[in-house]
Amino acid sequence: MKQLFTFSFCWLSLWLQAQTTSKLLLNSGISQPLVILMDESERPDVLLKSVESLAQEAWEQPHFLLIYGAKLDTTSIAKMINDLLNSSENARFFDKKKIYLLMLKTDPVVRNCLTNKLIFADVETYPATENEAPIPLAPILERFRSKYLWQIDVSDIEMKNIKITEKTNRLGLGLVFGSNTQNIFKEDTAFLPGKILKYGILLNYKLTNRIQLAGKLMGSFKIPNQKKLQSSVLNQLDISAGGEQTIRAEMEFHMYIEAALQANYFFTLRKRFQGFAGIGITQISFNSARSTIEQTIDVSNFSPGSGGGAPDGLDFNNGGDDFPKLSHKFVYPFLSCGLSYALTPRMNVIFNANYQITNHAGGIVNGVVVNQKMNPITFNVGVQFSFRISKVYYQYLNANRKIIKSKGA
């Protein structure tokens, strides 16, 4: 007896209603007939022996789908066949004009329903056997070979039974707000503010119900306010006193960009709450500066009502362009944990804390000594909206209604 392992086969274990099970036996051919063998028994021994007993030239031509179970029903059978024909991995193996059905012991209701389906080029029944003897498949396959659907019939099936089904929410887009504190530089921490408030966008993609990829792009910007600086200087001057007076002004500038990518594992805590933990990598780029201006000026000829700007010798129009700036990039991994709360089926509030695995102590940036980060923990909170990705799904076999058989040859 030939061994079934001479086939190149793929096993499908589908735990559907009524405990229907299937085995898919694929040969090496592409776009070849599919023969479905169906038996209301708990073991596929008879079906397997029947396929094994075929001559080599007979079993190499079609693919076989064995469907068996203690109780077969049209719903589980329809789902099994529809999933198989819609599968991008296996669909290329089947010639949809040549799908055949052979039923052994089946419920009369199921038998009558499936006999009238348009999807099958031919349907036959075989009397239930009392022993484990294999079924003589060769003459049945020979009769199947002469029956097929026209291509126009296959197209008609797909046009009439097309159904758009929505997959699980996979893509999410939202807004995120965060903060972190640091004391990076020993000599002058004002090169980068000790506290950064950052805003940005959050992108999430669900690989599975448990594993998700998340990316975020956040930024913080501060540009000197010219009017505020000028007003601060003017408030320090006593125009009526005249003469030389000393004024002091401080200008700060920074541009902070953070980009991160991470993988998270989600687990359900309560109905609307999910916890998650993950690992990722982030890059921080910043360009910052700070300058203190202290200057003695003569205000004798300055009139606040003249419409002029700052007193002579003091210019606030550079916006920090002439400051000695500090620019640098940090790249490091981080660990993350957090909570997700579902406000609606498509909207979530997300809170998470990141622990940055980094130590920059002892480095030199633009002549400034880098201090070790004092607080490696950062916090983020955001709101995310999930989008549903639609998928075209053909109901080749509809369990809920009968279709008139076509006029195929």
Question: What does this entry look like structurally?
Answer:
- With 409 residues, the chain is α+β, with helices and mostly antiparallel strands.
- Helices cover 16% and strands 42% of the residues.
- Strand 4, helix 4 (108-115) and strand 5 (122-125) form a beta-alpha-beta unit.
- It is rod-shaped and about 115 Å long.
- Residues 1-18 and 401-409 have low confidence and may be disordered.
Topology summary:
Layout: E1 21-25, E2 32-39, H1 45-52, H2 56-59, E3 63-68, H3 74-86, E4 94-103, H4 108-115, E5 122-125, H5 137-145, H6 151-161, E6 162-166, E7 171-181, E8 195-206, E9 211-222, H7 226-236, E10 244-268, E11 273-298, E12 326-344, E13 347-356, E14 364-365, E15 368-369, E16 377-387, E17 390-394
Parallel strand pairs: 2-3, 2-4, 4-5
Antiparallel strand pairs: 1-3, 6-17, 7-8, 7-16, 8-9, 9-10, 10-11, 11-12, 12-13, 13-16, 14-15
